[in-house]
Amino acid sequence: MSQQKSPRNLKDNLNTAARLSGSAIQMGVVIYLAVRGGKWLDGHFGTEKVFMPICTILGVAISIYLVIQQLKRIQN
């Protein structure tokens, strides 16, 4: 016998999926902006590929931190 999910569980699952999708978009935007900022800094200071890797790594670290915080809120 199959057990049907209650409307409350279905709503919770959809809410969780929407939050995780938003987190993925947020992660992409943060990394994109970090790369663009690194390129701008390299152009502004006349350096060649010094700031871009630093900003990219910083952007990845920030986005991972934000995803972990979002996952903690989802679990509660």
Mean pLDDT: 90
Oligomer: single chain
Kindly name the structural category: mainly alpha
* Helix proportion range: over 70%
* Run of helices and strands: HH
Which word captures the global form? rod-shaped
Rg over alpha carbons? 19 Å
What does the main sheet amount to? Answer: none
List unreliable stretches of 5+ residues.
none
- Gap between N and C termini: 31 Å
E-strand count: 0
Strand content: under 5%
Number of DSSP helices?
2
Protein name: AtpZ/AtpI family protein
Keywords: Membrane, Transmembrane, Transmembrane helix
Transmembrane segments: 20-38, 50-68
Q: Which descriptors would you attach to this protein?
A:
76 residues; ATPase_put; 2 helices; transmembrane; rod-shaped; mainly alpha
